[in-house]
């Protein structure tokens, strides 16, 4: 008796559900992703067996090559701090420059050079030389760095009634007297607790 041939049917795989899930995941990742901060002052972090968690609203002080940059991570605090600094030093900023500063994560210039920097296109800003925020006092007047820290913490207190934590991201090869000077400035404002940003030591 001859075998009955069964007709083979083409298998149809419906990919609609998988495509929907893929697009949902992609949308979620895009909406929740944070842009990487531009590192104006690349530093070689000291190694540590533990990596401390950095608070989202922390003031991050980066130290390298005897230069200092500052990052005020909360935008509302950043804006009010700039306004306070401008008033203190008698420097005016346009609304466009203020808006640009609000979107600037890290800066490392004297206040009198900041306006020119903010007016530049993004491509030229990346090439702008980082000279660092001045640490030297003039006579009995504290340094610009002192006032940036002071005004940032005052602004956070006014806006959110909280004390901003401070973190130091220092190059492991930086000279000790330069780092000590920054710590002294912090301690003069009764900031005796701060985080040290380190790189996690890997076991071989």
Automatic annotation (TrEMBL):
Keyword Cell membrane annotated: yes
Cellular compartments annotated: Cell membrane
GO annotation, biological process: protein transport
One Gene Ontology cellular component: plasma membrane
Stretches that traverse the bilayer: none
Organism superkingdom: Bacteria
Coarse class of the protein's main subcellular location: membrane
InterPro entries in the cross-refs: ExbD
Protein topology in the membrane: Single-pass membrane protein; Single-pass type II membrane protein
Keywords, alphabetical: Cell membrane, Membrane, Protein transport, Transmembrane, Transmembrane helix, Transport
One Gene Ontology molecular-function label: transmembrane transporter activity
A Pfam family matched in the record: ExbD
Assigned protein family: Belongs to the ExbD/TolR family.
Protein name according to UniProt: Biopolymer transporter ExbD
Species per Swiss-Prot/TrEMBL record: Flavobacterium beibuense F44-8
């Amino acid at each position: 008796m001859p075998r009955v041939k069964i007709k083979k049917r083409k298998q149809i795989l419906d990919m609609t559900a998988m495509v929907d899930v893929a697009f949902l995941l992609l949308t979620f990742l895009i909406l929740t992703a944070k842009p990487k901060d531009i590192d104006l002052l690349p530093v070689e972090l000291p190694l540590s067996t533990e990596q401390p968690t950095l608070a989202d609203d922390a003031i991050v002080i980066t130290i390298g090559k005897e230069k200092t940059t500052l990052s005020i991570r909360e935008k509302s605090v950043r804006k009010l701090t700039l306004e306070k600094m401008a008033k203190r030093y008698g420097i005016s900023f346009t609304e466009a420059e203020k808006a640009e500063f609000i979107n600037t994560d890290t800066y490392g210039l004297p206040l009198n050079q900041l306006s020119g920097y903010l007016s530049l296109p993004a491509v030229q800003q990346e090439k702008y030389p980082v000279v660092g925020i001045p640490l030297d006092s003039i006579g009995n007047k504290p340094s610009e760095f002192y006032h940036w820290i002071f005004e940032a913490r005052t602004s956070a207190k006014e806006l959110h009634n909280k004390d901003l934590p401070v973190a130091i991201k220092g190059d492991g090869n930086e000279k000790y007297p330069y780092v000590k000077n920054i710590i002294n400035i912090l301690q003069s404002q009764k900031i005796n607790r701060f985080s040290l940003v380190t790189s996690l030591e890997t076991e071989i």
